[in-house]
Design brief:
Oligomer: single chain
Largest sheet: none
Shape: rod-shaped
Strand content: under 5%
CATH class of the largest domain: Mainly Alpha
Number of helices: 11
CATH architecture of the largest domain: Orthogonal Bundle
Structural class: mainly alpha
Mean pLDDT: 75
Number of strands: 0
């Protein structure tokens, strides 16, 4: 082992001696080689580790992205859901209208439109059946109309059709809608009978005073429009 170590040391000293002799004989070439080596090392380090973005002349060229890869397909809005909800509501209202018609509360088309006639029919049914629910289209209302045995409270029939006096005192849908709206919005304890009575006249006059209308106590077209605008629901 000592002989091998001595031999290695001798080789190392000999190589170092030759390198020193070469440097002494060619000092300019050695300095140029050393400078070039440092420059190349600095360029490699800068290209691999010190660049924040892609190098303008990278050592390893990356495959450019194709236009199809870079293009992101736009997300289209889902318009089917609102349309389905709207169709479902129309069908629900149409089914309610059919059931109300079958029970005698509604005499219009089952068109799925919640108009004044449908609103009045629903309110008449709720009052007659003694339900505590809001007059709005819902599955619960449809079930209530389907399973209820309530009948319209109207007494108009063949006798009143041939009796002029009976026609005058028969319940009116316009009066019924007005009475219900006035009662709902606190214009008196009005019985919804469809007959224009003294309590209804007092409530009409109170509404006219509040809205600064000409006070005549009559259910005129202007009165109905003002009442519908205040309540936000159709009356006819």
């Amino acid at each position: 082992m000592p002989r091998r170590s001595a031999r290695r040391n001798a080789v190392t000293f000999e190589s170092a001696g030759r390198l020193a002799v070469a440097i002494g004989e060619h000092p300019r070439e050695f300095v140029a080689f050393l400078t070039a080596s440092v420059a190349v090392f600095a360029i490699i380090v800068n290209a691999l580790f010190l660049q924040k973005g892609p190098h303008p002349a990278p050592i390893f060229a990356a495959r450019p992205l194709l236009a199809q890869e870079m293009t992101i397909a736009p997300r289209l809005p889902n318009t089917s859901a609102p349309e389905a909800v709207n169709q479902g509501r129309l069908q629900l209202i149409a089914n309610i209208q059919k059931e109300l018609n079958r029970k005698g509360f509604y005499d219009g088309p089952a068109d799925g439109i919640w108009g004044a006639r449908t609103d009045t029919a629903v309110r008449d049914f709720i009052q007659t059946a003694g339900l505590k629910t809001t007059p709005e289209a819902s599955d619960g209302l449809l079930r209530a109309v389907t399973t209820s045995n309530a009948k319209p409270a109207s007494t108009t029939g063949a006798a009143t059709q041939s009796d002029p006096i009976g026609k005058l005192i028969a319940p009116s849908k316009r009066v019924t809608a007005v009475q219900r709206a006035l009662a709902d919005f606190g214009y008196g304890q009005i019985k919804v009978t469809g007959v224009f009575d003294a309590d209804t006249k007092v409530a009409v006059e109170k509404f006219e005073r509040d809205r600064r209308l000409p006070i005549d106590g009559q259910i005129s077209d202007r009165f109905v429009r003002e009442l519908a605008a205040m309540t936000g629901r159709p009356l006819e």
